[in-house]
Amino acid sequence: MIASVVARLKSDPAEAQAVIDAINQRPELEIGVLSTEYSLPVVIEADDAAMLENSTEWLKSLDDVLMVDVVFVHFEEHEKNMPQSNNL
Amino acid sequence: MTTNEHPAKPKFERRQFIKASAMAAATAVANPSSGFALPVLNPGEPVLDVQWNKAPCRFCGTGCHVQVGVKDGKVVAVAGDKNADVNKGLLCVKGYHVGAALYGKDRLTKPLLRQKGGYKEISWDAALNLIADRIESDPKRFAIYGSGQWTIPEGYAAQKFMKGGLSNNHIDPNARLCMASAVTGFLATYGVDEPAGCYDDLDACDVLIMWGNNPAEMHPVLFSRVIDRRSRGEKITLIDISTRRTRTTEACQHYLEMKGHGDLAIANGIAHLLIKNGKYDKKFVESYCNFKSPNDEKPNLHGKPISFDEYKKQLEPYTPEKVEELSGMSADDIRMLADLFGNPELKITSLWCMGVNQHTRGTAMNTLIHGIHLLSGHFGRPGDSPTSLTGQPSACGTVREVGTLAHALPGGRVVANAEHRKHAEKFWKLPDGRILATPGYHTVKMWEKFCTPTDQGGDIGTIWVQVTNPGQTLPNLNKLFNPSEKLDDKFLIVSEVYPTATTRLANLILPSAMWVEKNGIFGNSERRTQQWFKMVDPPGEARDDCWQTIAVAHRLFERGFAGMKDRDGRFIFEVKDKNNQLVPIWKWENYYDTNVDQHLFEEYRQFTKYKHKDLAPYTEYVATRGLRWPVVERGGKWRETHLRFSEGFDPYVESGKGVQFYHSTTKDDRAQIWFHPWIAPAEVPDKDYPFMLCTGRVLEHWHTGSMTRRIPQLNRAMPTAYLEIHADDAAKLDIRNGDKVKVESRRGELTLQAWINGRGRPPRGTVFIPFFDETLLANVLTLDAIDPFSKQPDYKKSAVKVSKVKR
Ligand code: SF4
């Protein structure tokens, strides 16, 4: 699965750089150009939606990240083994 | 829409291409002025062999618009719609799953009839006959239970079928369980339902107060809009008034903790200080407001008029110290709130949702929030607004506007009003007197009657459930749902997309189409009506709920059932094409020969002017990302309304009036400021049941999890329900993180794991359980006490005891 998100960072150049450095350590994440309003586009390449969510949660957990929003999700390879209900 | 055929690309190149598209989309949203194109968002672009089209998100009432990418008859991608005002290209993490939710392995694909030992597949023809038999045998004992996930045409068809066709008002939605008190609050205050403001207020307010509301998890994109302002350096004060710490708390400057029902005291405390300190807006109040208090002898939404002095006197006991005692919030914090409301320079928006609505004094609490805004004059300017949110995508559009409630008719009308019934009979071309004047059973009553033996007054024999899961969401399930299993003459029909806690007891299951497998129209929390087209086929024999209703109606019509004929003897859902030829929409193979949604919507539109909720023609919604009503044509253009009741914004406010509450219950263009006393919750902890239980939602799962629990990763991330408990209480009971605990109320018991210092942090003496888990039904514990006006239950305050399960 491939997705992209926008991370809203605190308006501080040093703190923004710290976030960018941290993201660069993660192989599944690729960053775009930081906007003048401290919004950072990030592409996530993941095996499944769990990994997407984990990466998003990790981004959110960074001290200088205020919010992470999803923009684009491509999930052509549909999930196998979806859980089922016992209610039939 | 266009289909783009391209030779197969190597997988790597293709993946790179998708990544580039993803980056372009995010860059364009992050930096709108960058000039980045959005190749993936432009229908017609030769990208990924995908067709793109717009739809509102399937999940919450925020009503974000998404672009849905379809390839080879399947949804393969979703992107935030940059052209949508609501979300401006953003989605919350549920966006990761909104497409995949269509493709669970156990989608229902055939009608199923319960027989001894299991279910048997039957034909649609047989299923329609069975339903028609049940109705024909006793039309008065038939009921429909729907939801705020019904599309507007689906709800409208069910409404017309029941009230206009069967002369039966037993139709109610699950929205009774989530926003009925918001409706009665608006009606009691302004004489007409739904917020005056809209989401634009979030961009303009200086202070945002969340009353028992957790938008960071439940309405994330709205919350993001606010946080985004902060990241741009704007100053905005966020205040979380709540009974437990949540993710919203983390982003707020102020977390003001209170006890359940403490909100009633807090609101009165603010009003008391505004008057005592001379900080209320005298001019606004004298120009635009009256005062009311409840009429205890005859409780209704009109109450009894009181003077300003009487109002002031009733508020006198609510000193900050008294309010601290009643609510648990400190007197200083109450003073701080009153000071904010007393500052005319600030713009204040209040948001609320289930915390205020699921409340045995929900109507009262809704009116009190409106009252503080009116008293302080924080009303009628962008950013100054009391705004309730909804949890479902069309709780406003389908339930509140179409009026799919037991007492209501479309467009703000009620069955008890003879003139309103006449309007409906005229628009529906029915003989006079077809619509009954007596309201049907509201949700709790409907299910209570269904679960009561027929010879003991249980006069509901058949319920047809569409687009909802009452077997999980009704309160006190051991009273309101489970007993029906043992009543052989009762019959439960469930239209669903997946097996659920409700299908567990169904006699007949009908497979339904969902989201972009059908045409649809939703109405979100800010009066925005949003349209989309069918993009993929439903699986197997799954069919639109709207078709199901019309097909049953026609089966009855074929049998000569008088109610299915209009006054000229024609089928009540008759549709003709451009050549005036009848389209047999009751036959599935012909249902999409015409746009049934458009036909139903145009008929429904006639109802909407009466309460100034005017809708534009269907085609206007095709061309836009939704429009906020009233939508009025001026200068050849259909224009939406951002702010109701305010001159310069609302086309129905007369020139020179400033603010005009033109549906005032006192018929003087004034809103009502209510006094309601603090009253204790219906059940409070005692020595036998010492904890207060609150139930609610979690980020990973949408409501009952019937869609999101099918996503393996979400299921793994949040696999089961749990009990949040304060560390001190846990230590006292020798409970450690992950221990199995038994939770008991006077109504049922549940064994589940404890979570201490987890995501949500309840204070001492309170516990929290989410309701998403169909294997651990939180609602066996909850109380079915209801608000006297809205009939909405309180899921936030049930007394329970907790004990550690010994290994
Ligand atoms: S905030 Fe609500 S409407 Fe918007 S993407 Fe999330 S679930 Fe969908």
Structure explained in plain terms:
Chain A has 88 residues and is of the alpha+beta class. Chain A has a single domain, classed as Lrp/AsnC effector binding domain/regulation of amino acid metabolism (RAM) domain (Alpha-Beta Plaits, 2-Layer Sandwich). Helices cover 28% and strands 32% of the residues of chain A. Chain A is built from two helices and four strands. In chain A, strands 2-3-1-4 form a four-stranded antiparallel beta sheet. Chain A is elongated and about 55 Å long. Chain B has four domains: 93 residues, Phosphorylase Kinase, domain 1 (2-Layer Sandwich), CATH 3.30.200; 263 residues, Rossmann fold, CATH 3.40.50.740; 210 residues, Dimethylsulfoxide Reductase, domain 2 (3-Layer(aba) Sandwich), CATH 3.40.228; 114 residues, Barwin-like endoglucanases (Beta Barrel), CATH 2.40.40. In chain B, strand 9, helix 8 and strand 10 form a beta-alpha-beta unit. Chain B is of the alpha/beta class. Chain B has a seven-stranded mixed beta sheet with strand order 5-4-19-18-17-6-7, sandwiched between helices. In chain B, strands 26-30-27-29-28-31 form a six-stranded mixed barrel. Chains A and B meet through strand 1, strand 3, helix 2 and strand 4 of A and helix 1, strand 3, helix 7 and helix 25 of B. Strand 4 of chain A pairs antiparallel with strand 3 of chain B, so a sheet runs across the interface. The site of iron/sulfur cluster has 14 residues of chain B, from helix 7.
